[in-house]
């Protein structure tokens, strides 16, 4: 079984990048399951139903979220729709939080759980993700593949989470920081790991937004309004995980980027 995971889609240019590249990537990879992180799809913060639909039509089976999932109030109109495969972080506190933190899919009669969890280091004080995993995992079918989109800020929390979950899930892949890391590996021949899969959007901005407000903020130490760099050149960050569906563990993980300076995957 192959799982294709695409990093944070940022703005209209991110949606265009998904629509441009994802069909060709899927044609080459031939994944059985495609997951796309879409929490930045609408103006860099949040997602609306039309953004979800564009990502789905481009080829996503599941759209995952993160700390910006609630930034567009319109998400509340569809996040509870059982026909929409959209995730928000599992570890939001309370019993009445809209949406789901885990989705079950069937791939060739095999159960696959896609889990969205958010870190707490330098981020919102959600429930402890380590304890949240301890609560969640025993409730899931043991004979199933488990994939984790871990939306977190710090590399240490991401690596620690993957090591804590080694042998309990098939993959832990990081999102949120928008820069793909070069540390793809499989822990103990069981759990695939990548600190960050990168982003999908402008190749020319700073983490997907225009340069000037970011630089101004660093120069002045004052708040500035961030705007998505919608006029930049397109890029897409993704990874492919090969999973043994007999053992439910990962065989391999490979990370890729496509941008104006790196077209190797397309050749």
TrEMBL record:
Extract the Gene3D superfamilies matched here.
Answer: 3.60.21.10
Organism of derivation? Companilactobacillus baiquanensis
Top-rank taxon: Bacteria
Entry-linked SUPFAM superfamilies: Metallo-dependent phosphatases
Q: What is this protein called?
A: TIGR00282 family metallophosphoesterase
One Pfam family linked to the record: YmdB
Q: Where is the signal peptide?
A: none
């Amino acid at each position: 079984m192959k799982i294709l995971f695409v990093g944070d889609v940022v703005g209209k240019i991110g949606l265009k990048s998904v629509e441009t590249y994802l069909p060709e990537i899927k044609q080459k990879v031939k994944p059985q399951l495609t997951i796309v992180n879409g929490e930045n799809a609408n103006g860099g913060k949040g997602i609306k139903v039309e953004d979800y639909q564009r990502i789905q039509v481009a080829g996503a089976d599941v759209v995952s979220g993160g700390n910006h999932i609630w930034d567009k109030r319109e998400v509340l109109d569809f996040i509870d729709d059982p026909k929409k495969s959209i995730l928000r972080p599992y570890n939001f506190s309370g019993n009445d939080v809209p949406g789901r933190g885990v989705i079950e899919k069937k791939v060739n009669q095999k159960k696959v759980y896609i889990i969205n969890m958010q870190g707490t280091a330098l981020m919102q004080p959600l429930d402890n993700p380590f304890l949240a995993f301890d609560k969640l995992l025993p409730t899931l079918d043991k004979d199933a593949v488990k994939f984790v989109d871990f939306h977190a800020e710090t590399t240490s929390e991401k690596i620690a989470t993957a090591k804590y979950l080694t042998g309990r899930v098939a993959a832990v892949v990081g999102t949120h920081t928008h820069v793909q890391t070069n540390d793809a590996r499989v822990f103990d021949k069981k759990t695939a790991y990548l600190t960050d899969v990168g982003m999908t959007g402008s190749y020319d901005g700073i983490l997907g937004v225009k340069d000037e407000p970011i630089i101004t903020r660093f120069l002045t130490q004052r708040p500035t309004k961030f705007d998505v760099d919608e006029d930049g050149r397109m890029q897409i960050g993704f990874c492919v995980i090969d999973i043994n569906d007999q053992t439910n563990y990962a065989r391999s993980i490979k990370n890729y980027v496509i941008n104006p300076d790196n077209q190797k995957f397309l050749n």
